[in-house]
Amino acid sequence: MTANGIVHRTNEEGTSGASPVPTGRHDPEGRRRQIVLAAAELIPEVGLAKLTHRLVAQRAGVSLGATTRYFASLDELRSEALRVMAEVLEAELAATRALLEDEGFTPRSLTKDLMAFLHDRELVRIGIELVFAANADPVLRPLANLWTEGLVELLAPALGPVAARGAALVMDGAAMHASINDEPLDEALIEQILGTLMRSGFPDDPPE
Amino acid sequence: MTANGIVHRTNEEGTSGASPVPTGRHDPEGRRRQIVLAAAELIPEVGLAKLTHRLVAQRAGVSLGATTRYFASLDELRSEALRVMAEVLEAELAATRALLEDEGFTPRSLTKDLMAFLHDRELVRIGIELVFAANADPVLRPLANLWTEGLVELLAPALGPVAARGAALVMDGAAMHASINDEPLDEALIEQILGTLMRSGFPDDPPE
DNA sequence: ATCAATACGGTACATTTGTACCATATTAGG
DNA sequence: CCTAATATGGTACAAATGTACCGTATTGAT
Questions:
Q1: Residue A106: what pLDDT?
Q2: B103 vs B45, B90, B196, CA distance in Å?
Q3: Of A57, B17, B124, B139, which alpha carbon lies 20 to 30 A from B169's?
Q4: What residues of chain A score a pLDDT lower than 70?
Q5: Which residue in B83, B67, B68 sits closest to B134, CA to CA?
C-alpha cells in the first residue's frame, strides 16, 4: 500500500508543469531539491557509505559542480537527504494512523500494515540507514528516533504505554530482521506476538 | 557482567607469555590475529565506514604493510574482524544461557541480563555494526543473524517458538534503541513487556 | 535588443585510501 | 659463525573523492 519511492521523477529536467520556471534551467530552489531527492533515493539503494557527489550528480542528472554549490559539504547533503527519508517514514506513519483509526487498533490491522512495510525493501532500508547515520553522527539521532517514537505515540492512547512500546520494539526488531533476510518473518507469527502484547492488561495501563 | 572488550591488549608487542616465539617478532600467526583483533576492536568504536588499513595498523602497533600482506584485501580483513565480533556476541549468548539455566527463564532474569547488555556500549555497537555489514554485503548476513537466531533457539525450548521470537524481537528493538540513545529503555518497562510475552500461553506453544 | 547578474557545466587540484614493492632486519639451519 | 629464507617496515603509486574554480550560457531588466 501507499505509493512510495521518494519521488520517481525522470532523469531529464524534472521540474515540469506550471512552475514559475518552465524549462527547468535557472531554478536554484528546484535544482537543490532535485539533488536532495536523488540522494534520498540513492541512500536506501547503495547505502550511506557509497554516497558520493558524483553518484548523486549522475542520478539527479546534473553536473558535479551543482552538487557542491548548493551544499557546503557532503555531510550537509547527506543530512538533508536523511531528513527527506525521515519524512517518508513519517508519511508512512500517518498512513498507519489512518488505517488503524479506520479498522481499529487490532492485532490484525497492525500486523497487516507492518507486513506491507516489511515487504517494501526501500522503506525498510530507509529505516535502517537512518539508524546507521544516527550511530555515526549523534546529531542525526532525532531523525532515527522519529519512526519508533512516533509509533509509540500513535499506539499509546489505545494500548497504554507499555503495550505500545512493546509493539514498537517488536516492529523495530522485525524491520531489522527484514533488512538482512530475503523474506520477512511469518505474518501469523507476528500477529500472535503483537496480539499478546495488545491484549495484555497491564496494571498501570490505562483501560482506554 | 562478563568482562568483554574484544581483548584488551597493550599496544606494544602484544603476544607475551610462553608462546613458541618469545619476543613477538617473526610470528606470522600471532601477528595476523593481532591485526584482526585490532580491527574488531576498532569497528565498534569508529564504525565500519572509517575502518582503514592505516587505522588498523596504528591500533595494532604494526606497519601498514603488515595489514596488507596478511589479508588479500580490506574486505577480507573486515570480514574476519566481523567474525571475531560475532564470536563475542556468541560468548555473551552462552553467558545468558548459563544465567537463565541457573536462575530460571523468568522475566526478571532475562531482563536483568538484557539490561547489562544494553548498558555495554561496545556490545550494542557490535550488534549494530554486524547488521550494517550484512546490509552492505549479503554474504555477511549469517553473522548478523547469529545473535537473534541464537536467542530464539535458546528461549524456544522453555517459552515456545512464538514467545521466544517475540522476546528476541523485543531485545533486538531495545538494542537498536540503545544504539541511538544515551540511556537504554527503562528496566521495569522492559520487564513488563518481556513478562507479557513469556507468560502468554499460545495455542500452539508447547506447555514445556 | 543589450547588458549586468547569475546559474551552470566541466575541469583541476589536494587529500585520502587501497595496494604493491623493496631494502632491511631477523630467524633457523648447516 | 655463516647463509638462505622469511618476516618486517617504510615508501611509492594509482584510483577515488571532496572541493574549488573558471569560462560559458541563460535570464531578467533597462
A1: 97
A2: 33, 20, 19
A3: B139
A4: 1-26, 201-208
A5: B83
**Could you tell me the three cell numbers for A194?**
503483537
CA–CA distance, B151 with B163 (Å, rounded to integer): 11
pLDDT of residue B114: 98
Asked if the model's pLDDT at residue B9 lies above 50, the reply is: no
Of A191, A185, A147, A189, the residue nearest A169 (C-alpha): A147
Inter-chain contact B162–A49, Cβ cutoff 8 Å? no
DSSP B137: -
The dihedrals phi and psi of B15, each to the nearest 5 degrees, come to: -65, 95
CA B46 to CA A208: how far, in whole Å?
45
Question: What pLDDT sits at residue B146?
Answer: 97
User: Which stretch of A174-183, B10-19, B45-54, B129-138 has the lowest confidence by average pLDDT?
Assistant: B10-19
Give Cα separations from A73 to A27, A28, A80 (angstroms): 21, 17, 11
Cβ within 8 Å, pair B173-A173? yes
Question: How many other C-beta atoms can be found within 10 angstroms of the C-beta atom of residue B208?
Answer: 7
| Protein-covered nucleotides on strand C (Cβ within 7 A) | 6-12, 16-22, 26-28
Task: Determine the Cα–Cα distance for residues A197 and B43; give it in Å rounded to an integer.
Answer: 36
Task: Decide if A135 and B179 are in contact by the 8 Å CB cutoff.
Answer: yes
Chain A residues whose C-beta sits inside 8 Å of any chain B C-beta: 47-49, 125, 128, 131-132, 134-136, 141, 144-145, 148, 161-163, 165-166, 168-174, 176-177, 179-181, 185, 189, 192-193, 196-197, 200, 202
- Least CB–CB distance from B180: residue in A134, A161, A180: A134
Three cell numbers at A159? 494500548
Residue type at A15 in one-letter notation: T
A77 to each of A11, A51, A67, A110, A151, how far by Cα in Å? 19, 10, 8, 35, 27
| For chain A, counts of helices (H) and of strands (E) | 9, 0
CA distances (Å), origin B56, targets A160, B31, B45, B134, B138: 48, 12, 12, 21, 24
* Phi (first) and psi of residue A206, to 5 degrees: -65, 135
Please say whether the beta carbons of A34 and A14 come within 8 A: yes
Q: What is the CA radius of gyration of chain B?
A: 19
